[in-house]
Amino acid sequence: MTRTCPFVVGIACFAILGCVTVVQSQVTLEVTEGNSTCIKAELSASFSITYDTANGTRTVMVPLPGAAVVGVASSCGGDGRSPWLVALFGDGHALGLSFSSNDTLYSVANLTLQYNLSDVATFPDANSTDVVTVETTSVGMVARVNTTYRCISASSVIVGGATVTFSNVTMEAYMTGDDLSPDESVCTADQSFTTAPPPPPSTTTAAPAPVPTPPGTPNQGSYSVSNSNGTVCLLARMALQLNISYFSASQNKTIQEVVNLLPNQTTSSGSCDPTSATLVLTQGSATNLSFLFTLNTTSNRYHLTGLSVVAAWSDMTAPFNTSNSSLDYLRGSLGRSYMCISEQTLAVDQTFSLNTFQLQVQPFGITRGQFTQADECQLDQDNMLIPIVVGAALAGLVLIVLIAYLIGRKKSHAGYQTI
Ligand SMILES: *[C@@H]1O[C@H](CO)[C@@H](O)[C@H](O)[C@H]1NC(C)=O
Ligand SMILES: *[C@@H]1O[C@H](CO)[C@@H](O)[C@H](O)[C@H]1NC(C)=O
Ligand SMILES: *[C@@H]1O[C@H](CO)[C@@H](O)[C@H](O)[C@H]1NC(C)=O
Ligand SMILES: *[C@@H]1O[C@H](CO)[C@@H](O)[C@H](O)[C@H]1NC(C)=O
Ligand SMILES: *[C@@H]1O[C@H](CO)[C@@H](O)[C@H](O)[C@H]1NC(C)=O
Ligand SMILES: *[C@@H]1O[C@H](CO)[C@@H](O)[C@H](O)[C@H]1NC(C)=O
Ligand SMILES: *[C@@H]1O[C@H](CO)[C@@H](O)[C@H](O)[C@H]1NC(C)=O
Ligand SMILES: *[C@@H]1O[C@H](CO)[C@@H](O)[C@H](O)[C@H]1NC(C)=O
Ligand SMILES: *[C@@H]1O[C@H](CO)[C@@H](O)[C@H](O)[C@H]1NC(C)=O
Ligand SMILES: *[C@@H]1O[C@H](CO)[C@@H](O)[C@H](O)[C@H]1NC(C)=O
Ligand SMILES: *[C@@H]1O[C@H](CO)[C@@H](O)[C@H](O)[C@H]1NC(C)=O
Ligand SMILES: *[C@@H]1O[C@H](CO)[C@@H](O)[C@H](O)[C@H]1NC(C)=O
User: Which ligand is the nearest neighbour of the Cα of 206?
Assistant: First the structure.
């Protein structure tokens, strides 16, 4: 039995998001040291930021303006520091991208967003004047060393209560010359929308295409996130299956692969704020999955708003990454956990969906490090109904047989008496 409802919700939200258009400028940012350039980025970015007002929360869309400048905190790295690109804009707002690399790949290791709530033009009616800094390590921009990272398609990064959406990105770090390398690492989203896929590694003999065998049901893992003072603030136990569509190097075509997350090779991390909580699951260096839960303080209900995935599997021509921050799944009420034993499909976009099994999560209101009472999903309630209906039907049948037997016995008694 499959449920299509979550799909419909996901697409509806995506459709609404698609209607929001923000005027975006292309920004060029360059970090230099001495006479040489080490980081160069040409990109458009916009920020969706949720903040508190006296009566509830409000969300604004802020574009990265063309007038953004490279901040002095930027650096080419060295002396144990990472290369860091900091773009300053408006009244004390900043976007920072820090890079890391090994012999083959470089990536954005963390993204920092700083925004100044005193800026009343951008954040009208904010009830605070703080400068807020949020940070995430799951950004999903990965490229081969000595190549330019290119991603024309929009991609979103969830960071605290904000979402950063990039588009038209060409960027290189650890540059060896002053210009962007002509070789490119193209993001997955672009690969699925361009007609000409990048040439696969040169293999002369056409290997028989391995038919992907569907994995069995995944194993359940237990994950938790703790506060800075060590208190557990998010609990999850669930079995997860990733359903990714990507361009296979060995098969020279886009394939659909279903892969189980292996709990014994997966670590969890994350953060908890009063109205948002993040769970990041990392399996080795190849798979990274982030969940963003938000709490609506008006209704005292929470739900999963964002899911993002980064996968760098051996058969991929470039690391896969995608995210969606306008989801509405796993709805529970504050002070209770959310449970769904049945399989659920959380559709993220055309290229990625997550299948969950035996799931119980609680992103808010944990007491004594344990799950509290659960809100059960509709699917489980329906599945529960079947045995009840069958049981009731059986009981009814037994009763009918019994009554028929008793009547029959009475009749035959009566029959003997007349003879
Ligand atoms: C940097 O530029 C200055 C002046 O243009 C030049 O004298 C110097 O040699 C250059 N340094 C390097 C490392 O190229
Ligand atoms: C918040 O309250 C003020 C005054 O009570 C009102 O003028 C304003 O419209 C309210 N804002 C929202 C978003 O409801
Ligand atoms: C993110 O990068 C900046 C700049 O390299 C660094 O100062 C900061 O500690 C990093 N944060 C994390 C969590 O790695
Ligand atoms: C924040 O904005 C206010 C008002 O626009 C400004 O006075 C202040 O300098 C800004 N803070 C920073 C850190 O730039
Ligand atoms: C570089 O990092 C990637 C993923 O982070 C990993 O798959 C790869 O094996 C690493 N390469 C080396 C040479 O360590
Ligand atoms: C702003 O409002 C939120 C909820 O509306 C509240 O939790 C927070 O404490 C307020 N902050 C300030 C500085 O008043
Ligand atoms: C990248 O380029 C530099 C300089 O041209 C070279 O020394 C290095 O080996 C190259 N690395 C890779 C992985 O191609
Ligand atoms: C730990 O921190 C959280 C908020 O960050 C607070 O609610 C909780 O009471 C703290 N617990 C202890 C034992 O200090
Ligand atoms: C994986 O996703 C594709 C496309 O959305 C779908 O047709 C397929 O049934 C999914 N497979 C599983 C096992 O969820
Ligand atoms: C990969 O597919 C493309 C188009 O389908 C084709 O032109 C190309 O020759 C193929 N490459 C290999 C190595 O099979
Ligand atoms: C992880 O679990 C799987 C299946 O339960 C098992 O086959 C594998 O050996 C385990 N790996 C490790 C490193 O424990
Ligand atoms: C929070 O819940 C209330 C009541 O259900 C709803 O009207 C409001 O739109 C919700 N707020 C957000 C940000 O979803």
Answer: 10
* DSSP per-residue codes, 143-211: EETTSEEEE-S-EEEEETTEEEEEEEEEEESS-SSSS--SSEEE-HHHHHHSSSPPPPP---S-PPPPP
pLDDT, tens digit, 9 for 90 and up, residues 98-141: 999 998 999 999 999 999 999 999 999 999 999 999 998 878 89
- The confidence score (pLDDT) of residue 181 equals 95
Distance between CA atoms of residues 183 and 147, nearest Å: 5
Element (H, E) at 293: strand 287-296
The ligand 4 atom at the shortest distance from the C-alpha of residue 116 is 1
Query: Which atom of ligand 9 lies closest to the CA of 355?
Result: 14
Query: Among residues 192, 224, 245, which one ends one of the domains?
Result: 192
What is the atom index within ligand 10 of the atom nearest the CA of 203? 13
Asked if residue 395 belongs to a domain, the reply is no
Residues 340, 256 share a domain = yes
Pocket of ligand 7 (CB under 6 A): 145-146, 176
Q: Are residues 188 and 219 in the same domain?
A: no
| Domain identity same for 157 and 76 | yes
CA of 31 to the centre of ligand 7 (A): 20
Instruction: Say how many domains are in the chain.
Output: 2
Q: What is the CATH number of the domain that holds 116?
A: 2.40.160.110
* Positions in the chain short of pLDDT 70: 1-24, 192-213, 384-390, 412-419
What is the domain range of residue 348? 215-378
**Going by CA atoms, what residue is nearest to atom 12 of ligand 3?**
110
CA of 55 to the centre of ligand 2 (A): 6
As beta bridge partners, residue 110 has: 98
pLDDT at site 80: 87
Q: Are residues 256 and 329 in the same domain?
A: yes
Ligand 10 neighbour 252 (Cβ under 6 A) = yes
Contact 292, 325 (CB under 8 A): yes
